[in-house]
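4.2 Preliminary Data

To establish feasibility before requesting continued support, the project team ran the inverse folding procedure on a target of 314 residues. The structure was first converted into the token representation described in Section 3, and no sequence information of any kind was made available to the design step. The complete token record follows.
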């Protein structure tokens, strides 16, 4: 059967009419929308590598514990969870250790002294500590969907990094979302108009996926990268201090080394809890670092992951 040619910006695989009808969706509808289709048998989704979930946090123990409790209810657990802590107080450590003691998988708390916003450095410390081949990064103020880990495991493909998406929980909704049963919390947030980004709020029967080479929508709150690819790019650029652009600059270097961005919607979703805005005082400097990486077609950074890796003996 002839396949429908796809626009170059999309990387999906068409589905025959009979296959579409078996899924309860008419084939012509799917063929007109190749980005809404499961990959065919020649391009199956991966059964999944070993996965480490890296969660960055700073002084949000309540939100962090909600995230951790959601991890305990995943349809498929991660192989390892590492908290990348940018200098939180003892209450964060206590919350994590109390939760970790009840888990059957490996858990670690990586901490650095807080001397300003140094997310890039603490993430590198966590990457260095990770034991899995595949790393999923999530912010500590987000709540993963129950199928979050399982979806990321199935979406993992060599030569790609996966950019997932998130819905937004407004201020009033953040007072309860993640404290109760997931479906009930989401329903309550929806009915009280505390749920934004509805296209990312519900898991779809199959994911919409396409390859992209731009930086729009790059967010570290839901980002999956092979550890070997991080090693080649030298991880996060620790020249970034203060909020903003460190994820985009990493994406630039990954793509310059030949790793493709796979943008995924409908699967691997999470929910961002409202919090007061973070200072963006250093954003202009971070913008300059991003522009330098773009202009120089950078593949590695100078101040990065290798500073935290074991040194090979001479």
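Position-by-position output of the design step:
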């Amino acid at each position: 059967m002839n396949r429908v040619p796809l626009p170059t910006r999309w990387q999906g695989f068409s589905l025959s009419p009979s296959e579409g009808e078996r899924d309860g969706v008419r084939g012509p509808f799917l063929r007109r929308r190749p980005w809404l289709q499961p990959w065919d048998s020649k391009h199956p989704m991966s059964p999944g590598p070993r996965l480490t979930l890296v969660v960055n946090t700073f002084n949000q123990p309540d939100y962090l514990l909600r995230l951790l409790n959601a991890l305990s209810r995943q349809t498929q657990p991660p192989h390892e969870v590492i908290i990348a802590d940018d200098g939180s107080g003892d209450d964060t450590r206590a919350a994590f250790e109390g939760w970790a003691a009840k888990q059957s998988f490996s858990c670690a708390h990586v901490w650095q002294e807080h001397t300003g916003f140094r997310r890039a450095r603490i993430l590198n410390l966590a990457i260095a500590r990770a034991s899995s081949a595949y790393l999923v990064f999530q912010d500590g103020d987000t709540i993963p969907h129950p199928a979050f880990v399982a979806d990321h495991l199935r979406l993992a493909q060599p030569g790609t990094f996966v950019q997932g998406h998130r819905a937004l929980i407004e201020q009033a909704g953040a007072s309860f979302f993640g404290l109760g049963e997931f479906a009930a919390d989401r329903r309550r947030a929806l009915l009280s108009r505390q749920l934004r980004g509805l296209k990312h709020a519900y898991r779809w029967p199959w994911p919409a996926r396409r390859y992209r080479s731009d930086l729009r929508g790059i967010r570290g709150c839901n980002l999956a990268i092979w550890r070997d690819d991080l090693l080649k790019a030298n991880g996060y650029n620790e020249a970034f201090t203060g909020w903003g652009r460190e994820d985009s600059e990493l994406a630039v270097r990954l793509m310059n080394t030949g790793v493709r961005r796979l943008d995924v919607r409908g699967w691997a979703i999470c929910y961002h809890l409202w919090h007061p805005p973070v200072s963006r005082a250093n954003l202009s400097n971070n913008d300059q670092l991003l522009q330098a990486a773009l202009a120089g077609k950078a593949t590695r950074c100078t101040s990065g992951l290798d500073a935290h890796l074991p040194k090979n003996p001479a």
